[in-house]
Amino acid sequence: MVANLSSHKAGWDERWAGFSEWAEKGQQFKEELLFLVDEDTRAFNRIMDAFGLPKGTDEEKKARKAAIEEASKYAIKVPFRVMEKSLESMQVMKSMAETGMEASASDVGVGALCARTP
Questions:
Q1: Which helix (H) or strand (E) element contains residue 117?
Q2: Which of 36, 37, 48, 57 has the highest Cβ tally under 10 A?
Q3: Nearest residue to 36 via CA among 76, 75, 81
Q4: Secondary structure letter of residue 118 according to DSSP
Q5: pLDDT for 88-118, tens place per residue?
Q6: Number of other residues whose CB lies within 10 A of the CB of residue 20
Q7: In this structure, which topology does domain 2-116 adopt according to CATH?
Q8: pTM of the entire predicted model
Q9: CA 74, 72, 80 angle in degrees (round to 5)?
């Protein structure tokens, strides 16, 4: 948002391309993080599905245990990916804090706080 607002500031026409690049990067981070929100739900559902597998025979128990383990490993990776993307997204906030419109500094701060939220 800050990149888009800054790119249209009067007198900053020569900076439009740079702000556009940052806006695209910010949009990519937003899309990836939104995907990961849904992926976290899907990962949880995989665990629940694995717990619902039959466990009547030794073979079923073994398959169920393996499915639970595999689903749990994946479910751990999703929040880790969120942490990685959140940290990477800080490059956009840093750049906008340094070069964006001063009037949008609070928006940059809110974005940074959101990216740091556990």
A1: none
A2: 36
A3: 81
A4: -
A5: 999 988 888 888 778 778 888 888 888 888 6
A6: 13
A7: Four Helix Bundle (Hemerythrin (Met), subunit A) (1.20.120)
A8: 0.78
A9: 45
